[in-house]
Structure prediction request, 519 residues.
Amino acid sequence: MAHSELKQSIGVWLDQQVATAPIGYDHPAETILAWWLGFKRRLTANIKRLNHEAEARRRRPSATVQQLQTAAQEAAAALDAAPHDLGRLTAAVEAQVAVSGAMRADAKSNVLAARRSRISEGERPSRGLTNLVHEANGGGDGGGPAPTTLRDPTSGQLISDPARVPQIIANYWRDVSALPTETELPTATKQAALAEVMAALRAHPLRLPADPEGDQLGSPEVSSAEDIKALRATPRGKAPGWDGLPADIYKGFTRQVSPLLAALYTAIGGFGTSGSMPPQFTDGVIKVLYKKGDPTEPGNYRPITLLNTDYRILAKALATRLGPALSAAISAEQTAFLPGRLIGSNIFALRHLPHLHRRQGRSAIVAFLDFAKAYDMVHRDFLLAAMEELGATEQLRKWVATLLANTRAQALVGGHLSTSVSMAAGVRQGCPLAPLLYLFVAQALLWWLQKKGIGIRLDPTNPECTTAVQFADDGQVLLDGESAVPAFLAAMQTFAAASGQRLNCTKVELLKMPKPPIP
Prediction:
């Protein structure tokens, strides 16, 4: 909304909503949970109404254009009265040229305003971006069009009906995130594997730091200051969730919405309640990005879950709490998502490993891991158990369990929505907290492999082994020769049973570094 008076009217309306909202200690926490969805619907209706008004204003000619159009009409009328008058003909033509020039100037102004908006939202034109847009079939990660024809995994048929394609996407990711059946993974097998991995993690010397002032990381009370900080860190111009309310609305009216959000989040956190949520608070919309391979296969698209801005602000506030503290619990071998960690460290280590072993006259194998749908298949009970072993408090785990409870999503393709499906496993790509949560899973893997004796000694005089280097779910495990491969694969099978993280065997690669030849 570029028109200041329209924006001001929303601000006044929000002030009224804040004044009458059921917030404060004199209101039961459950009240705002019931009130919130209705508030968002009223806000959406107001935004739509004012956007229609703003669009109507943009379409109206400017005062200059209107004046020139009046002058052009008068010149045309004068020419009609004397069609053979050369002077009147010249005046009519010049008047129409002036109108055209003024209309072009108006259009240019609108285009420049839109471009300034895009630049402020972080978008930049580039040759690479243009090539991606112009590619007919896509060619890389994130390129290519939305799917128009997909193979139904159930029937094997190719489906081109635009109304049915989204349901194939939704059903595919529902099945990916489904927990294994008793036949696929007996409960006794899973529980035994989980106990083994957690025992290894229990021996982990690193923990989230204890807070002498109380449980600040897991505090159920979320302050307005935390909301404001999360809002400032939320970029503009991002796609909204199913409610259609983008972050720009919240950022534009921070003063009004921050106390409402603080009351809402505190109620969700269980400040005086059991920690319930407003209806559809965790629901998302799945958009898919083509990766590579057969474009008719739904598995060749990456799912991004578009979550509502109110959900994302809460997740961002929790991530802001957790991020700095998590470094204390995550080994240096993990270089993703944490302050001061660089993926270049992994590259440096792997590039120098062959030279080190050549000097020592030793061989080794590097296993380049690839997990099948890592974020989407992780078992949530495993995640919460790993968090507990790494020092996460009960209240922090409750926050995570609340955000991962009863998650549902619809797929959106070509303007068509699927029905809503349940997601029983995984952390959602699109949630600001998901990357940090996955680090607990990756840390469990690292310490499980170390417990099983997987790794190599970089220094022959040091008995400690280096097991792997990691960047989130992307890991390179170091094996002490071919004889270590069977034990490594067995350890990964146990970890898969415990966590849902299964190797994609068609993509895992083993790189052998043989002993140097004897001179």
User: Anything to note?
Assistant: The radius of gyration is 29 Å. Residues 114 and 425 are 40 Å apart (CA to CA). The first helix runs from residue 4 to 20. The chain has 17 helices and eleven strands.
